[in-house]
Amino acid sequence: MANGVREPTIDPTNRTLSPSATSAPIRRTGKQFFSRKVVLVTCLMICSVCVGLTGMATGTVSAVALMTVAVGFLMLAAPAYWTLIQDAAPKEYVGSAGGLMHGLANISGIVGPTITGVIVAASTYAGAFVLAGGLGVIGAVVIWAGVRQHHYR
């Protein structure tokens, strides 16, 4: 414990990193759902903007740097998705909600490359990156405006 701040440790009972990036804002706001949503939306927004800017990058180094930042923020947001599902879904449906989320992600993994190929054949890779970044920004706005906490017990 340095300066009164607890170091992240691994909890042997559930093997999660605690406190994580999603729990730091909880200590400041006292509102778990809001702070997790802020982390998720912020990371998704930064990731999406970086992906969109990758399509406009003029050099290889800048394109790789933007994609590296995008993937980093995407990985930072991943734990927030699961905690958001656990907060928003009824306890008995958390697994089903997670399965639905993974199913949709797998479908997008099939459809995405096909649509990217069509876009690249019609124009350039820049159009595909800008479209992906724009869709990510729209997704972040939908999460911010549409996801509400329900108090199921």
TrEMBL record:
Membrane topology (UniProt): Multi-pass membrane protein
Keyword Oxidoreductase among record annotations: no
InterPro entries, sorted: MFS (IPR011701), MFS_dom (IPR020846), MFS_Na/Anion_cotransporter (IPR050382), MFS_trans_sf (IPR036259)
Chain spans, region Disordered: 1-23
Keywords of the record: Membrane, Transmembrane, Transmembrane helix
Localization, UniProt: Cell membrane
SUPFAM superfamilies in the record: MFS general substrate transporter
Biased composition range(s): Polar residues: 11-23
Major facilitator superfamily (MFS) profile domain: residues covered: 1-151
TM regions (residue ranges): 38-57, 63-82, 103-122, 128-147
Protein's name according to its UniProt entry: MFS transporter
